[in-house]
């Protein structure tokens, strides 16, 4: 379940509209550019879905998920030391 949640979190934080990562990334853009990017949100979503179905995002997403997994293991590795595993 942790791996599935981590995968969904990484996917949702992609900096392309309409994902949540775009809302964060677009905060740093001027308002004019933000609204221009959001105007094409529907088309960008279709393109991202096509990339997912074609498998072209498998390698970058797995690289990001594996990196986050390694980071989580490093940050929580002390728990194993405390319990003697």
Describe the overall structure.
- By secondary structure, the protein is mainly alpha-helical.
- The protein has one domain.
- Helices cover 78% and strands 0% of the residues.
- It contains 5 helices and no strands.
- It has helices spanning 2-12, 20-25, 31-39, 41-54, 58-83.
- It is elongated, with a radius of gyration of 17 Å.
- It starts with a helix and ends with a helix.
- The mean pLDDT is 86.
How is this fold's topology laid out?
Blueprint: H1 2-12, H2 20-25, H3 31-39, H4 41-54, H5 58-83
The domain count comes to: 1
Secondary-structure element series: HHHHH
Low-confidence stretches: none
Structural class: mainly alpha
The biggest beta sheet is recorded as: none
Count helical runs: 5
The global form is elongated
Q: How large a portion of the residues is in β-strands, by DSSP E?
A: under 5%
Q: pLDDT average, as an integer?
A: 86
**Number of DSSP-assigned strands:** 0
Global Rg: 17 Å
- Helix fraction by DSSP (H/I, runs of at least 4): over 70%
Q: For the terminal residues, how far apart are their CA atoms?
A: 21 Å
How is this structure best summarized?
Helix content is 78%, strand content 0%. It is built from 5 helices and no strands.
Descriptive keywords:
85 residues, mainly alpha, 5 helices, elongated
């Amino acid at each position: 379940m942790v791996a599935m949640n981590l995968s969904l979190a990484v996917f949702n934080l992609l900096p392309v509209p309409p994902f949540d990562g775009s809302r964060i990334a677009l905060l740093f853009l001027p308002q004019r550019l933000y609204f221009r990017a959001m105007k094409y949100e529907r088309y960008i979503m279709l393109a991202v879905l096509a990339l997912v179905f074609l498998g072209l995002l498998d390698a970058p997403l797995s690289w990001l998920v594996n990196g986050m997994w390694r980071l989580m293991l490093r940050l929580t590795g002390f728990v194993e030391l405390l319990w003697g595993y």
